[in-house]
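ingest -> validate -> predict -> emit
validate: passed (alphabet ok, no gaps, 131 aa)
predict: started
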Amino acid sequence: MHAPREFADREPGLLGRVDKAASGADHITFRTESGLSLKALSPRPVKGDEAQVAIRTAYIGLGATATSHANRIEGRVARRMFHGDFVQYLIDWPAGQLVVRRPPAELIEEGETVTIAFDAEHCVLLEASTS
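emit:
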């Protein structure tokens, strides 16, 4: 099975492994290849061969909007690009580079250190590829 379109169209998944999965629970801890520990959602029982999560970037809080307590990570704004009705930020964070889109009223300067935050429900374990 492939990633849901709302995830896969924009961002590649983060590679790693399931670190902890409670029996029958849908919430897991996922450890990325870079060692970052993320709280995530598993929409199906964990099989043990899953190696990727996808983050719904529309639900990432950045700076002042970083209100989630599930996943809070520090990053640095590498680039800021204006696109009319939104601003796209390229954020360097421990798992590589992340694209975040925010309204133009919330401007963050390039080079600024920011908090990135998102709920576990917006970080989803993807099913292992069968190919």
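The chain has a mean pLDDT of 85.
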